[in-house]
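If your schedule permits, I should be very grateful for your opinion on a structural question. What I wish to show you is a protein chain and, alongside it, a tokenised description of its three-dimensional fold. Would you kindly read the sequence against the tokens and tell me how you understand this chain to fold? Here, with my thanks, is the record as I have it:

===
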Amino acid sequence: MKFNWNSVYEFDDKVKKFCIDLEYKLRPRITHFLMAHMEKECSGDFSCFYFDVDLEKLYVTIARPTPLEFKRKIAAEFDREINQNFTNNLLPLL
């Protein structure tokens, strides 16, 4: 899986560190979600999944390069499971 970091701010060292810390929190959470919802279709290979992370809104979306059939299958659950309480989970990073 790949993360695209979207921000209106310059990616200085502080923002880069925040992105790294955020990815360490997001990656296991998203991997667990994909294993629960897409294991059969992907056989554990989630390299075709791309995610856009909006650093201002602290919101994750499934990005365009992700195959459309996969995106359609998980979109509603993804938003509910990944973005729900997203900000609360990040408070230690902010």
